[in-house]
Structure formats: C-alpha cells, structure tokens
Amino acid sequence: MENTVNIILLACSVISGFIGYIFVMKIFFVWNRVDLNLLKARVFLDPKFLVRNWAFIFTTGAFIVMRRLLELFDVLKILVLKDISVIFDLMGLAVVVSLVIMAYFWYKIINSSLEHNPEKDAPKK
Known about the structure:
By secondary structure, this protein is an all-alpha fold. Helices cover about 80% and strands about 0% of the residues. The chain has 5 helices and no strands. The chain starts with a helix and ends with a helix.
C-alpha cells in the first residue's frame, strides 16, 4: 500500500511539474513582447497578486524546510516514523504544486502585459 501511495504522489509531482514547465515556457516565448512598465504596474499595484505571490513563496520554503527537517530527524534517528516516505513525497508534491500555481499566476499577469502590435496581431486578409 505504501508503495502505491508513493507512486501516485510521485506521478502527480511529475505531471504537475510538466504543467508548470508549460507555463514557464509560454512566459519565455513571449517575454520579448512584454511591456515591462505595464508589467511592473500590474504586479506592484495589485496587492492581491503580491500577497498571493508571497504566500506561495512562504509555503514552498516552509515545505522544503520541513522536508529537510524530517530527513535530518530520520538520519539522526531522533524521530522514527514508519511511513516517513509518504509524508516526504506529500511535502514534495506540495512544493511542486505551489510552484506551478505561482507560475500560472505569473503567466496570467505576463500574458496580460504583452505589447500588442496591430500589424502583427491583425487577422490576415
């Protein structure tokens, strides 16, 4: 049973990672068309975006520290848990999902800050 849960958690992490990779690649391909002044205004004038971004950064960092702490406890034999690998994989999934959600929100804000070129964006006749 433990192995099945680990496989499911790892598969979810990999799938989530690929989804995040897609968002990051989409950002990469449109970056040269981004109006940086508009992006700065949208990021720093939207307190909801900033708070959400910091919450995801904090959550990701907290899960990374907790994973390292559990690993340290396991190595030092301070806290012996039977099923530490499931907890470890669950925290890893939380880190990946948190980063993917953050990449999605950045993708949305960057996509809304693109410079529109009327000649390039106009439908072809």
